[in-house]
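SEQUENCE-TO-STRUCTURE ENTRY
===========================
What this section holds: a protein sequence and its matching fold, both as plain text.
Tokens: labelled as protein backbone structure tokens, with as many entries as the chain has residues.
Question of interest: how does this chain fold, as expressed in backbone structure tokens?
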Amino acid sequence: MLYSNQRLKNTKLYKEHNKLQESLYKVSLQKEAAQQKYLKEHIIINSATNEALNINYSFEKYYKKYTKSIEQKIYTIEAIAKEKDLEPVFMTLTLPSMYHPFQSIGYKGKRLYTALNSEFAFKNLEEAIEEGYEMLNHIYRTFYKRLKKEVKELMFIRVIEAHKTFVPHMHILFFIKSSKKKIFLKHHANIVNEFNLSQTDLELKEDNELLENENKNVVMGINRAAKYITKYITKTLNDGEDYFTARVLDGYKRLYKMRMITMSNLDLSLADFRTIYYNLDIDTKEKLLAKAKSKERAIFHYIMENIYRVKIINSNAKTSIKKFGNIDKSELILILQATQINNHKGGYGLYIHNLKLFVNHKLIYDKPNFQTLRRN
């Protein structure tokens, strides 16, 4: 619930906001219930052994696996950027006033919402959220395309976050060469003016008074940027507030079909990392974790540097074989056979038929074929 005065609480838009928060929480619960219902109504059988699997979907378990893998990839991107001598720049994109339903002021260390925003240009809050998300992505794509033409070595971590009003804003942690920061600032200033952005900040590594004076949106203190992003995505779920927030965010991304976190592509995908890490036996996992620690690597980074992957993909009656890594120097080997399935939005997914994981030439995981049967 927003911290606000009584006058605002009596408005239709404020009541809509409170109802939306409850709805988002329920969306998350309903999605979990639907998955649990499906699993109760169906039996999943190992085709080779005829063994019936006992599978139960848990939001908490899924959330912790999801955030663990995201956290690991963030650590890996930071480490690679450091090795390449790339420096961080933290950018926040906040939408213009027309997207924000309420006016607010700082009051006793909090944000106090005081009145309706006369510049609000939408018939309801949901419309502002949906169109705001589209606009943020358009602004980001415009900025990134322009920057990429002049800056070739570039890595990023991009996060969508909701204001307390649920209107989205975007945080991006870029890594670039120090010599390219003036180019970055030029393009940043251009999009701020072009799209009439508000409260759009930059944080750079060095304490450079010249940059700060030239651009009022530049703020120093980059050290907190990566920590902020990591903290944002890794709620502990140990207390009621964290749990409620995680549920609301889950409902938020599901209802509005938002991609909350996007990062630079690495040699190991998040999907492959999850497949590997969560199918390791305890003994093998502990050994790999110990080796990663000794090398001062995140486990994602260690696996990425020590894996050989073979992907056999069937698509449109054609088969392609892709190989990644050096088999002679790799501790892990992943062999995957799948069919590419195109979706209506132009993207694609993979239906995995066969997957084998070897560690030090020992078969650790061999994905069985499953049959799904409806219970009588």
Q: What stands out?
A: The radius of gyration is 24 Å.
